[in-house]
Amino acid sequence: MTNLEIARLDAGLSQEELARKLGVTRQYISDCERGVRKFGVRTLIKCADVLGVSPDTLLRSDTLTISKKKALPAELIIDIMSASEENIQAVWKYLRYLRSKKN
Question: Does domain 3-102 have CATH number 1.10.260.40?
């Protein structure tokens, strides 16, 4: 899981929502999260601004915190990284459902 993905999830945004805010495609965000592509400087700065983090936070590979208040347990990270894409999407859908019930 990249810092981009962590920051996006912390902000409560889907790839599509972040893409819309940045004026790029969802596939571009997906590619950046997987390390297939890299943001241009302007997009990196805009993305960091949208997500409320510094640009260097998005570029670093050593941060595993979801926010300043919560840290992901290593076991959870391992579970997420070994899960199938289908299971990850199902969990993500469920978490969005829970968040919508909270509001």
Answer: yes
